[in-house]
Amino acid sequence: MSDKLLAGYQRFKNGYFTENREKLRKLAEQQRPNHVLITCCDARMEPALIFDTAPGDLFVIRNVANLVPPYEIEGSYHGTSAALEFAITVLEVPEIIVLGHSRCGGIRSLVLESKNLPKDTFIARWMSIVAPVADLADPDKLDDHATFNRCEQAAVGYSLVNLMTYPWIRSRVEAGTLSLKGWHYNIFTGALKQVHDQDTISTIVEEAQD
Questions:
Q1: Whole-structure pTM value
Q2: Is there a contact between 153 and 100 (Cβ–Cβ < 8 Å)?
Q3: Helix or strand (DSSP H, E) at 61
Q4: Among 181, 176, 175, which residue's Cα sits nearest to residue 196?
Q5: Do 41 and 18 belong together in one domain?
Q6: In terms of residue numbers, what domain contains 120?
Q7: Which residue of 28, 110, 151, 160 sits 20 to 30 Å from the alpha carbon of 200, by its own alpha carbon?
Q8: What pLDDT digit, counting tens, does each position of 35-50 carry?
């Protein structure tokens, strides 16, 4: 199975790496990405391919269902939060994009199996970050992709709200040095939709605080 990967590596080394050696040498010294992209670990999501970007352009954070947990310092390990902290406070990346996608297995499990998932599993605990999303699904339309698209886009909104709980993100957003966006990509049609921008995020945050 790994032979295919090794063959691909040889093509990369003999092709792209050789042709872009000087650029990659500069990248080896320092990275200065323009965007933090929080997206799903789904194997069908390839950000560099979707956005036609080169090494060094994107700081990609991947996890199940492209979720952002709320800010907290104690209690457990925090891979997503640590990556965000590094990207924003050290690299000073000026934009964060939460990229959801259609036919997301994490959202599907939340909607269809939220009451049946064992509470002591990693997946159940992780998906509880956006538990209210399950209530948006019409029980009579669970075979409708539009139902899941609505839930996927709502989950992006929850992640954006959670981003604003990080003090070093909120302060930069309010100062105008950091922008947040929420996008949804349809893996079947290839369509990309902006589902949240700075104005809608502010409204969502205000509603969450009421």
A1: 0.90
A2: yes
A3: strand 58-63
A4: 181
A5: no
A6: 35-209
A7: 110
A8: 999 999 999 999 999 9
